[in-house]
Amino acid sequence: MVKVAEITATIVTLIFILAGVGSQIYVNWKRKSVEGLSFYFYVLAVLVPMSWSWFGFLNNAVIMGCIQAFGAAITLIVIYQFWLYRNGGSPSPEPPAKNEDSGDDPLDRWSDEGGR
Length: 116
Fold this sequence. Notes:
With 116 residues, this protein is mainly α. It has a domain at 38-88. Helix content is 69%, strand content 0%. It is built from 4 helices and no strands. The protein has helices spanning 2-31, 39-58, 62-84, 106-112. Helix 1 (2-31) runs parallel beside helix 3 (62-84) and helix 2 runs antiparallel to helix 3. The model has no long low-confidence stretch (mean pLDDT 78).
């Protein structure tokens, strides 16, 4: 029974990595955004291969453990992209320049009206 679970988990992980997460990493990189993705989905998605990896290493199924660990690492790249693109694509945006005479401050209007 363990062999069936081992083979199934390995095949599912390879499909998940190659078809799903791998292409998502590329799409995120290309558009510099993770808009439309669920952060919590990817947190859960990284826990599954981590659990299978743990199971594989505990049961001396090294190939399964390594492939599952690889799947977890690839999924962690998407979680890293959530951090990287958290500001809409620019890792460290500059604050907008403050214009001294913009008139946006309500206190400026107060002082222009004679300080009533």
